[in-house]
Every structure is written in structure tokens, then in C-alpha cells.
Write a structure and sequence with these properties.
mainly alpha, 0% strand, globular
Length: 483
Amino acid sequence: MNEYVPSWLSLLPAGVAIGLAFATRRVIVALFAAVVTGGVVLYSQTGDINDANFVERFLLPALGSKSYAKILVIYLWSLGGLIGIWEKTGGAEHFARVVGGRMAKSARSARVFGWLVGIIFHQGGTVSTVLAGTTVKPVCDEHKVAHEELAYIVDSTASPIATVIPFNAWPAYVGALVVGSIPIVADDGAALGLFFASIPFNFYGIFAVIMTLLFALDLLPWVGKRMKAARVRARETGALDAPGANPMLPPKEDAGSGRAEGYTPSLADFFIPLGVLLSVGVLPTVLIKMGVIDSSPVGINEAFVGCALSAMIVAKARGMSLGDVMDGFINGCRSMTIGALILGLAVTLAEVTEVLDTAAYLVTLMDGNLPMIILPALLTALCMGIAFACGSSWGTYAVVFPVAMPLAWALVPDPTYIQICFGAVLGGAVFGDQCSPISDTTILSSMFTGCDLMDHVYTQAPLALFAATLGAVCSTVAVVVLV
């Protein structure tokens, strides 16, 4: 048997997934074909027929992994059940009507409301997309905000804001990747300090958040042909989706049995579960950052389970029958079936790209003899490509940071230059994660705003690409001016 050596073939499965997703608009078909391709590629390199068995080699290990179990229990069952309970109680709609209704008087103000909610839920990625999408969708639907618009707002205030307002798990994760990589990052404290010092140079994250606000305010002079068409369609015809769109979650009227008979919604139905989520999942992180506590026995996983349970308890305590409570929970979980399938295949493809060393191979394509002035822009582009191909910003960080920091230090051993390069990696990976059709955040942003996945990808990409290009230019200018 041959030893596996990463080559251009490592890019093939991700290329198949992305290419078929754009060509067919059928993400399940694209992801499945990519997994099969991964088996073929691995077999062609190793000669071991067992590697061609993609079910045994990739599918079963991925679906039996802790990461997929977390997706099922946390994001699909807990959040699906929570949304089903909110549908039974009317809690989320009541919040949107009472709170959002006071602010949202038009499509513009409804979009701004969505942007603000995205900023508030700044934990990043899946957490933000699900909560923000669920909360603001009723208000935006009422004011004829196209689902493509809402999906962009939700997605572009998820991971980007998490790298700009980092009161979450991102600094600790990224910091652990760079500790000891260069002399000025000798310990965890120095790594966290580098993260926070690099925030002003995370140009993509900053521009993405600002551009999303300008988009919400209708102040961008250009939004792309497809997004403009979606906006015009929604305003003039009331159609929130494009013709032929296929949202992953069914329309509300088909999603479940509706409001429980005789139950009066209250803000408690919304705020108590949300309070449990924030107090259990976010407050300990803030206290650790402040030095009040050293560690927490609970985290975001326990927070989501507690959030769903508290929603059920509140509904039962306020008079809903146990049967209606369980019907709401089960209907919510059932509505996540397609999402579970897509995310399962996405997790499997991530397993494929890890085994094939796709990200590592892309990193090796960068020549070490680089002019120092263009390194930040090249790091941005490299991370954009890796994260787009792999669908993961954190996976991209794990591969790029240990290489990028020593490379930057070898070129210019200056703290400011390191901060600029650090910010370039942060932003570039977030772009790829945000725009890739195989990313969980892209999938969930589409799912919970009721948008067709590929419609979201097509309409969001031009805006995000403009922000990324502007970010790369600014990082180059920063090197010229500050280093």
C-alpha cells in the first residue's frame, strides 16, 4: 500500500461539492457526491480498497462523532424543540410583535431590527444564526423583507461580529493555536492579548458588520444584481422567495399544528428560555474574562438543553397541556430533518477534507519568499479559499495560524505587523465560512430565515466579496503606513 501524500487531488471533493451545489442547486446531491469522490481520491492514492468504501471510511465515523452528536442534540433537537414550543406558545411572535413591532415600522427599520438582534446574539456561527433568524423573521416577513435580505443580515452579523466583539469562545480557541508559535506569544495571556490587539486590523469582520448595517438602512449604492432583484420582488409583489425556491424549513403554515388552543402568549415564554441560555452559556464566559472565576462546569451545550427545557416548563406552568407541550417539541424536531441530513453530510465532508489534508495542501501552495507588504492580503485570500472549500473558519484557523505567525515573524519581527497578519487570518477565514454553501452557518442562516440555500449564497457573495477585497486593500495600506 502507498503512503498518502496530499496533492491537488485533495481539492477535488470540496471542488465537487461547491461546483455541483452551484450547478444543480441541490446541496444534498452535491455533498453526497463529494463524499463519494473523497473515497475515490483516497483509494487512488493509497491503493487500499477499504479507503474506497466511503460509508465505512467517512460517513459512519462522521455521523458517530461527538461533533455530529452535538449538532443533533443542541442545534437540531434543542433548538428545533425550542422553536416548536415557541410556535405552540406564540412566544417568539409575541416578542417580535411587542418589541420588534415598536421599532419596525417599515422594511428598513425591520432590517435594522434584524441587524441589532444579530449584534446582541454575538456568540458567532450557529448560535447567532439560529437565534437571530428565528427572532426577527416574523417582523421582517410582515414588512416584506425578502428572505435573501434577511439571510444576509443574519449571516453577516454572526461570525464576523464574534471576531469584533469577542466576548465568546473565539479568543480562547484561536489563542491556543498561536501560543509558542513566535517569541512574543509565549503564553495564553500573550495570545489573548494578541487577539484583542488585532481586532482593529480584522478589516473583513469590521467591514462586514458595517456594510450589513448600511444594507439594512438602504444606504449601500450597490447590492448586487440578484439582491436588488430580490428586494424589488418582495416590495412590489410581496413574494419573499424567488420563483422555484426550496427553503429547508417548510412555510410556517405547514410547519406544525400552530398555536395551542386557549393559550395566551407572554413575553415570559420568550425571555425566560433566552435568559437561561444567556446566563448559562454566556455569563460564565464573561466572568472568566473578567477574572471573577477560573472555569465553568457548564457551557453552551448545557445552555441550549436548559433553554429548551425551560421553554417547556414555562409553557406547562402557564397552563398548556403536557400533550401540547410535547407536540410542539416533537413538531419542532421533525422540521429539522432536512437540516440534519445536510449538516450530517457537511460534517462527513469535513472528515474527508481532514483525512485528505485539503487545508494543509493549500497552505503549502504559498511560497515562503514573499514581499512583506503583500503577506496580509495573501493570508486573507488563502483563508478565504480554505474556509470556502472546507466550510469552517475554525478548521481554517487550526491549519493557517501555526504557519502564518512564524512566517510573518520571519519576514518582519514587529508586533504591529504580526497584528495585521493576525487580523487578516481572522477575517479571511470568516469570509469563507460565511459564504461557503457547505458551511453550517450558511446552511442554518438559510434554514432559519426561510431562504433557499443557494439563493442565499448567490445574493450574499457579491457583498461579502466586496468587503473582503476592501479588507485586503486596507491590510496592505496598514503595512505601508504603520510598519
